[in-house]
Design a protein that fits this description.
This protein is mostly beta strands and about 280 residues long. Helices cover about 0% and strands about 50% of the residues. Strand 19 and strand 20 form a beta hairpin.
Length: about 280
């Protein structure tokens, strides 16, 4: 079955099955990756600014599949010298979202001095599909409870499409400062997309997204089973050529943004005339 492809233009970022774009946002430091000699594994070097404080500092690097770093659910490396701002860790699983943090012990008290989220390389798996994150996007009003897959925004700025009509993509902006972020992380703007339909007449995961209004709930179930709740602030239609940067940027609040197609469909270009953008803010009740 042929899909209805959709194109979302952002300076430096392109959401398309075929396109790329020349402008690139400044790269953000954090991790360097290399395929391991062991098939299916990745070696990662983490970078941060060491927190050297009077009274002595011990540093530990924690790495986890879980953004909440549950007890027993992360690997801790250390102690690391207080002057050292890097650490190499081998044998991480390919095509997987990882979270990391550096905890520093200063004068008997622990605090987190650096954090990050990244997706490991595919390393020759030959699979171009979006790998699963283990998350689920839940929108009670329209009956959505969808698996979430992962697309990394690379240096070429290309934003990949969902695997099919029923899944949702979360975009990993690990290479771009000030944009995106993982749901539930303070200050993140977690950006999701999904198909509105499939050609010629199949509805898709976000077919009813247009029904959302301010006050409606959107939730993300994390890998550890915890639930992050957001409330819709607004929805808007934008032109398919409109600058999307403002919707991907972080603004200091815990945001969630969803984008899908809407408007009229041009069969010659396989593109919709507009995009529907939904913005929500996290709540704690």
């Amino acid at each position: 079955m042929r899909k209805r492809f959709w194109l979302l233009l952002i300076p430096g970022l392109v959401l398309s099955a075929f396109a790329s774009f020349s402008c690139i946002f400044p790269l953000m430091g954090g991790v360097d990756q290399a395929c391991s000699a062991t098939p299916g594994m990745v070696d990662v070097t983490f970078h941060w600014i060491p927190s050297i404080q009077t009274g002595g500092t011990q540093q530990y690097l924690d790495v986890s599949w879980y953004s909440t770093f549950p007890t027993g659910g992360s690997i801790s490396n250390g102690p690391i010298d207080e002057n050292q701002g890097w650490f190499t860790m081998g044998g991480l699983r390919t095509n997987t979202v990882h979270h990391w943090r550096v905890n520093a012990l200063v004068n008997g008290a622990w605090y987190t001095s650096a954090t990050g989220t990244f997706t490991t390389l595919g390393c020759g798996t030959g699979d171009s599909s979006a790998p699963p994150t283990g998350l689920r996007l839940i929108i009670p009003k329209i009956g959505v409870n969808a698996p979430v897959n992962d697309r990394v925004i690379g240096p070429d700025g290309a934003m990949g499409i969902p695997n099919g009509k029923d899944d949702v993509v979360w975009y990993d902006f690990m290479n771009y400062g000030g944009m995106g972020g993982f749901p539930g992380i303070p200050g993140a703007n977690a950006l999701f997309s999904g198909h509105v339909d499939y050609h010629p007449h199949y509805t898709a995961v976000f077919w009813d997204l247009r029904q959302l209004v301010p006050g409606d709930e959107i939730g993300v179930q994390l890998l550890d089973g915890s639930y992050v709740r957001y409330i819709v602030d607004w929805t808007t239609w934008i032109d398919d050529q409109e600058n999307f940067t403002q919707f991907a940027m972080k603004d200091g609040f815990d945001r969630l943004t969803i984008v899908t197609c809407i408007g009229s469909f041009d069969s010659s270009t396989r593109n919709y005339s507009n995009r529907l953008v939904v913005r929500a803010t996290r709540v704690f009740w």
